Amino acid sequence: MKKFIQNLKNIWSIDELRDKIILTLLLLLVFRVGSYIVLPGIDPKGLAGLSQNASKGMLGIFDSFAGGAFSNASIFALGIMPYISASIFMQLVSILVPQFQKIQKEGESGRKKINQWTRYLTAIVTLFQGGAYVAYLKSPQIAGGAIYPSFAFFFPFTTVILLTAGTLFVMWLGEKITDKGLGNGTSIIIMVGIMARFPASMAQEFASKQTRGGGGLLIFLIEIALLILTIMALIVLVQGTRKIAVNYAKQIIGNRQFGGARQFLPLKVNSSGVMPIIFAQAIMFIPGLLSNFQPTAGIARIFNDHGNIWYMLIYSILVIAFTFLYTALIFNPKQVADDLKRNNGFVPGVKPGQPTADYIGTIMDRITFPGAIFLAIVGILPGIARNLNVTAGFSTFYGGTSLLIEVAVILDTLQMVETHLLMRQYDGLMKTGRIQGRTTATTTGATGVF
């Protein structure tokens, strides 16, 4: 406890870090306040149907990322998701299209071009999603009765404009947190949106266990202990790396010697991050959606029930497959081998060039397989928790996209804070060693959550 208090004093004594923390908290407060400002023309009392339907399937994930703004019909209802979609698309294009690869290699100027195109694409995506959200709200069983009849004519136009402006404003908040705050602005906004629902979900779980009598409190404490163990296991997954020894040849320039040092090339056990889970959830959502148009009892029961054994089996296979696919897209052993050769580096016992690329690729495949299995288990944990009578809201924090994002973002933020402390010659946050985030062991340049 004394160490914790001393760390807080050290953090507060650094003017730059204190300003970053205060600015980040203020911008996040603006985001949370905006999540409760209802769109014009809607009666908040008539949103019960929206809240109920927004907790299912992909809409539940969407609402979780938006911090409940989606189910509140808020001006930030679409949240940061259009920007995430645009960023993912631009990332994949930069990997697959040679012209975009060249732009990305131009350094700072290339990064600015990619970011500017991502913003334009975000506005386009938001316009389409805003139109879909308007159609969703106008459904009689969703929130059709909550729209004031006198405003029904103007509602589609004003809503699309406000949703687009809201998403662009949230994107601006994220960029300000990245530039002036604690960094990883988009990821922090998503994490805060997810964490905002944690207290209410925990209270609901506690209340449900209290109805069981004296044994309910013990079950609740066991659930909390299991949640802590799950978080500890996820920290291992996020930080897990396989280090490959790399030697650099000595160079003598004038009277000085360069190189000759032995370093390590860190390969991530889970280099794909949360993307395989998101892709798998999107694929699993499609059959359930189609079953609503052409009812099939078996399909509807399997793909709409996250606790169904067949759902979890298919879902796990998809996560494993997408983990290998996305890792192959973002990690290029040939490029890593070429970079090592260009910098006079080599792996001991392995010839430079293609043999080094094959060696790195083989090791990457070996560590990706257990990482993919672990990621699949993380993805189905909420369904397992739901089968063990954990409430729907609280079960989502046992794994899946939500918990993985929370753990990764918190580790990155703590690492940034610790870096500021060490730069001022303070002790780190932990006695056992430095905190490692995702960025300390990345080799591809894709350091964000997505």
UniProtKB/TrEMBL annotation:
Q: Which GO terms describe its biological process?
A: intracellular protein transmembrane transport; protein targeting; protein transport by the Sec complex
Bilayer-crossing residues are 21-39, 75-97, 117-136, 148-174, 181-198, 218-238, 272-290, 310-332, 367-385, 397-414
Print the keywords alphabetically: Cell membrane, Membrane, Protein transport, Translocation, Transmembrane, Transmembrane helix, Transport
Which residues are the signal sequence here?
Answer: none
Q: Which domain of life is it from?
A: Bacteria
- Cellular compartment(s): Cell membrane; Membrane
A matching Pfam family: SecY
Keyword Membrane present in the record's keywords: the answer is yes
UniProt membrane topology term: Multi-pass membrane protein
Xref: InterPro entries = SecY (IPR026593), SecY/SEC61-alpha (IPR002208), SecY_CS (IPR030659), SecY_dom_sf (IPR023201)
**One Gene Ontology cellular component:** plasma membrane
Under the heading Gene3D superfamilies, the entry gives:
SecY subunit domain
Instruction: Name the HAMAP family on file.
Output: SecY
NCBIfam families, alphabetically? 3a0501s007
**Which family is this sequence assigned to?**
Belongs to the SecY/SEC61-alpha family.
Q: What does this protein do?
A: The central subunit of the protein translocation channel SecYEG. Consists of two halves formed by TMs 1-5 and 6-10. These two domains form a lateral gate at the front which open onto the bilayer between TMs 2 and 7, and are clamped together by SecE at the back. The channel is closed by both a pore ring composed of hydrophobic SecY resides and a short helix (helix 2A) on the extracellular side of the membrane which forms a plug. The plug probably moves laterally to allow the channel to open. The ring and the pore may move independently.
Q: How does it assemble?
A: Component of the Sec protein translocase complex. Heterotrimer consisting of SecY, SecE and SecG subunits. The heterotrimers can form oligomers, although 1 heterotrimer is thought to be able to translocate proteins. Interacts with the ribosome. Interacts with SecDF, and other proteins may be involved. Interacts with SecA.
Query: Can you say what this protein is called?
Result: Protein translocase subunit SecY
